[in-house]
Amino acid sequence: MNRGRARTTLVAVPLVVFVVAGLLAPLIAPADPTANDLAAGLASPSAEHLLGTDQLGRDQLSRLLYGAQISLAITAAVLAISLTAGAVVGTVAGYAGGWVDRVVSRVIDVVVSLPGMLVALAVIGVRGPGVDNLILALALWSWAPYARIARARVASLRDSPHLDALRLLGAGHGRIVGRHLLPLALAPCLVYASTDVGTVVLAVATLSFLGLGVAPPSAEWGQMLIEGRPFLASAWWLAYPPGVAITAVVFASNLLGERLAAGAERPSIIRLVRPGRIRRATRPAASPDPGTVLRVRDLSVTYPDGSASRRVVAGMSYEVRRGQVLAFVGETGSGKTTAALAPFGLLDPSAAVTGSALLDTHELIGLAPGERRRINGRRVGVVFQDSGAFLNPLRTIGAHVDEAVRNAGRGGRRAATRRVSGELLRLAGLPDPVAVARQFPHQLSGGMRQRAQIAIALAGEPELLVADEPTSALDATVQAQLLDLLARLRDELGMAMIIVSHDLAVVSRVADTVAVVYGGRIVESGPATDLIDEPDHPYTRGLLDAVPRPRTAPGTRFRTMPGLAGGGPDDLAGCGFAPRCPLRQDSCDHEPPALQPLLPATAHRSACLHPPTREGSC
Amino acid sequence: MLAVDRVSAGYGAVGTVVEDVTLRVAAGEIVGLVGESGCGKTTLARVVTGLHRPRTGTVHLAGVDVHALRGRALRAHRRQIQMVFQDPFLTLSPRQTIRQAITEPLQIHRIGDARSRSARVDELLDLVGLDPTLGDRRPGQLSGGQQQRVAIARALALQPRLLICDEPVTALDVSVQAKVLNLLCDLRDQLEFGCLFITHDLAVVAQLADRIAVMRGGRIVEQGPTGQVTDQPAHPYTKTLLALGINDGRRSVGTLGPTRPTYPS
């Protein structure tokens, strides 16, 4: 992130130089840009004239600086006019909708499709050259993209709860547009404007070069170019500096615009294509027992945080057996998703992963991207929470599944691939695979899209399915159906599964084993029935208490835990949950609790120094 | 206090989404409206607030026909119905500070001067359990639960008689859900507004609401006091919804769902 910001700053340097030179030209220019000195004509660069002089003996450096001033003034004027007009027109059209929107949109389409330079030539042809006509000519065609951007931004909000909430508060149209929508529309417009600086500077120079812009003797870069052209061979210092200046400003503006736009929206899909920076495990683990599909030991994940680094998962160990579901349960930011995805290289590229993760006998930590491709999608399938973001809106469900089948090496002839895809969709519980395959993601309900994602994940006949909050955004009934589907896939295909969820009640439907995660560590784990019937850790008890229960009197308060979740595994010396724990004792602040079996030889383990169940019996 | 009578509503191309709905909410009462997405519950909420016009039927709040009002009178009347939405981040302006967001309704209705507004914002922040120092932050700097508290504070700034909550805790962690629900209960006891609580999760309203209305396919299929609906559900759909709860901690892999996957041969 920091390196990215440094690069953005670097890219902006030519633009800053351009603006400063323009503003300070009268102060820093060594000479009057229009003062002739015929005796010193066409002098090459020297200490007196750093960039030489032109045929009339005018100081080229001064002309370049004053040229920046003129370009800057014209560009600022054009951008101010077109940005304001465009943003206002677009915002109003997007907010009004209906025929206003249709008419304005068509006008925008027409203006955008006109060749800008021709429009400018026509305007100047009618009104004659000059600075004000130049600004008018450029603004007349450069407002349209801003209007289009603003309109798109606002139209997407037209029916949103944001505006409903404001209307309910009594806000009128003026307030909604002026206070709320216009500022939102301005942000992407400003990003576009940074690119547009280059376009306008180039257009001004071009028109001046053609003799239609700024008239001589004013120093203007395009004007300087045309004046230097006859002397290209004999006096290079006349044409090169303005040429370089124009090129630098245009390039810098384009790069800056691109960087700002990229910073505004960084696609999350990047996690899928780029593997994390991963260190090799220090020592290989002992040979696993044959029923274990994935065996993770001492997994830690560290992210850079400014100049320091921050651990988000600390020394986690877990394993999943064939035909079993392991559920990671915890609050937002607890590290549960990170712990589940880290073995498969699905984290942000800046994550450093240590420890060991054996898939059968294959070590996954430290795999090269090429080796990873033979595992992900084939031996391991992944289902994400947001199926809308996962699926490409422009491709049919069938195309997605076909691609997954081919990637898994199970394709063949088209008909064979199709047949496998159809089977997968049926396996995922979609009743009419042929019809569903022809549909686009937006034509399906959230539950059906999630089933399509499951079909894609099953394409490689994986041994292990990892599902990150697979049902969180869905209705209760749909959630239950999807979980039942996962349970059947586990039973009938003998698959191992990891399900990540914030809702202990939801996963209790399918999980065989539950691991409760708090502050980057597992605080309690064990068979689902034991853990839910006899929770040991105070945090697990808190989570279960927060779940609404049937047959309580209306208005009964939910039992809650004090404080907020948060904090990493290394923030506190002792137990991470101590600050929120109702049973905290002094030793909790100093001594980190280890995850220990509740009884000798049980799988139910808990990391608590003073658990309520055991304290009483001592 | 709120009387919805035989309301049907829909959208041009989509057709009818809400059909013949009759519903009452008394002052100080929480009514849970349960149904899955697409059943018309959000459209019904928009009709009740006056944001969407019904095809037939009427909505009266405190004896005033909400849809007979126009312009200034409508806007003045809207003070009495406020709404809390599912995703607080989408309803708050990212550029406004918390303080500005809560002050805005007071400015719109010209209530008080700068000083009294500021005092009222402090009071509201305190009411929803937020530290006043958070007032200078922007929504992006708050957690989901805190954002929802801000949305509730803003909705309560105008002292509404009716608060509509549309899936207000669905986007939150379970442990945070419980806190926000408790807050709503406390505020209702304290301020005695009526509350229409919309959700897909019957378990939540079973503990929260005084009465429950179950909606399916645009119609209310069952309506009654909470105890009656949860103990003796009359409609099969209500029974299905009830079977989805945690069942006092016991595991339950039910036999729900119309589809059964089979292993491909």
CATH superfamily of the largest domain in chain B: P-loop containing nucleotide triphosphate hydrolases
Q: DSSP strand (E) fraction of chain A?
A: 5-15%
Round the mean pLDDT of chain A to the nearest integer and report it: 84
Output the radius of gyration of chain A.
33 Å
* Number of DSSP-assigned strands of chain B: 10
The number of distinct helices of chain B, counting runs of at least 4 residues, comes to 10
What's the CATH architecture of the largest domain in chain B?
A: 3-Layer(aba) Sandwich
Taken in chain order, the helices and strands of chain B follow as EEEHEEHEHHHHEHEHEEHH
Oligomer: heterodimer
Q: What can you see in these coordinates?
A:
- The complex is a heterodimer of chains A (618) and B (265).
- Chain A has 618 residues and is an alpha/beta fold.
- Among the domains of chain A are: 16-29 and 54-264, MetI-like fold, CATH 1.10.3720.10; 323-341 and 369-533, 3-Layer(aba) Sandwich (Rossmann fold).
- Helices cover 49% and strands 12% of the residues of chain A.
- In chain A, the strands form two sheets. An eight-stranded mixed beta sheet of chain A has the order 7-8-9-4-10-11-13-12.
- The longest helix of chain A has 37 residues, at 60-96.
- The two termini of chain A are 52 Å apart.
- In chain A, 49% of the residues are buried.
- With 265 residues, chain B is α/β, with parallel strands linked by helices.
- Chain B folds into two domains: 1-80 and 162-242, 3-Layer(aba) Sandwich (Rossmann fold); 85-159, no CATH class.
- In chain B, the strands form two sheets. In chain B, strands 6-7-8-3-9-10 form a six-stranded mixed beta sheet, sandwiched between helices. Chain B has a four-stranded antiparallel beta sheet with strand order 2-1-4-5, with helices on one face.
- The interface between A and B is large, with 74 and 84 residues.
- Chain B: This is Peptide/nickel transport system ATP-binding protein.
- Chain B: InterPro entries: AAA+_ATPase (IPR003593), ABC_transp_ATP-bind (IPR050319), ABC_transporter-like_ATP-bd (IPR003439), ABC_transporter-like_CS (IPR017871), P-loop_NTPase (IPR027417).
- Chain B: Keywords: ATP-binding, Nucleotide-binding, Transport.
- Chain B: GO terms for molecular function: ATP binding; ATP hydrolysis activity.
- Chain B: Residues 2-242 form the ABC transporter domain.
- Chain A: The chain crosses the membrane at residues 70-95, 107-128, 189-215, 235-256.
